[in-house]
Design goal:
The protein has about 240 residues and is of the alpha/beta class. The protein is about 45% helix and about 15% strand. The protein is built from 8 helices and 8 strands, in the order βαβαβαβααβααβαββ. The structure holds NADP nicotinamide-adenine-dinucleotide phosphate.
Length: about 240
């Protein structure tokens, strides 16, 4: 496999770069000489992350709360104002609320989580596809989860909204991969269960493992598209 190993000068948008997997990924790409725009929802956390990331490389913080339907368009606008092309769109930001079943979740959670876990990713791809087409071997990575595979839906019913949004993100990945085939590579990543705020303290892996898996999926041959990966190992949607 001809892996991509040189990220120097690449222009990368990472959503949810203020902590967790997005933050760890930003550290790796900045250290490799990439330019990174990283979003966060909380100003204080983003400032804190930005202070550290800016010591590593060319990092630009951008406030975005994807619960606000206007946010994806504002992010796309800000990216376009800074860059005339984009090499990587890393759709990483998401929310997970742990509830044991649909009854416990109530009716509203699906409505609200679809915004941050599916609609924002879709709109960012839609609005940034023309900048990506001007990039060099451009790629999109949608960060999904092992909790959203077809197999897991057949056997587990806790946190149903989160599972369903991630399952749908797999579908979104396939559809955009077909739409952009030959122009932009589109893949989904399972970063593994990690000790982030989302993953919780009992997870077996570290946040940095997620950064490493993001690096691996971004290093795959550009011809790989429309697939689901755990790092650089292909898995089933
Ligand atoms: N950790 C795991 O075990 C695990 C397993 C499988 C998949 N994943 C996936 O990996 C990705 C990253 O997860 P993580 O563990 O790094 O999560 P995390 O530590 O909770 O970080 C989430 C990031 O997303 C941002 N974010 C959250 N809600 C947002 C919203 N409504 N609008 C805009 N930004 C928002 C946060 O910004 P603020 O800091 O401003 O809130 C933060 O930067 C997610 O897609 C998640 O589903 C994680």
């Amino acid at each position: 496999m001809a892996l991509m190993t040189d990220f120097k000068g690449k222009k990368i948008l990472i959503t949810g770069a203020s902590r967790g997997i997005g933050f760890e990924s930003a550290k790796l790409f900045l250290a490799a000489g990439a330019h990174v725009i990283g979003t966060g929802r909380d100003q204080e956390r983003l400032d804190h992350a930005s202070a550290e990331l800016s010591t590593i490389g060319d990092f630009h913080p951008l406030i975005a709360d994807f619960d606000d339907p206007a946010a994806p368009a504002l992010v796309a606008q800000a990216v376009e104002a800074r860059w005339d092309s984009l090499d990587f769109l890393l759709n990483n930001a998401a929310v997970q609320t742990y509830k044991s079943d649909w009854e416990d979740e109530g009716l509203d959670l699906l409505q609200s989580q679809l915004r941050c876990n599916l609609f924002a990713q879709h709109e960012l791809i839609f609005r940034l596809q023309h900048l990506l087409r001007k990039g060099s071997e451009p790629r999109i990575v949608n960060v999904s989860s092992g909790a959203g595979t077809l197999e897991s839906l057949k056997t587990s019913s806790d946190m149903p909204t989160y599972r369903l949004t991630k399952y749908a993100l797999g579908g979104l990945t396939l559809l955009w991969a077909e739409t952009l085939r030959g122009r932009v590579a589109v893949n989904a990543l399972d970063p593994g269960w990690l000790k982030t705020d989302l993953g919780g303290p009992h997870a077996p892996g570290e946040p940095a493992d997620g950064g490493q898996r993001m690096w691996e999926i971004c290093s795959l041959p550009w011809s790989e598209s429309g697939k689901f990966w755990y790092g650089n190992q292909e898995i089933d949607f």
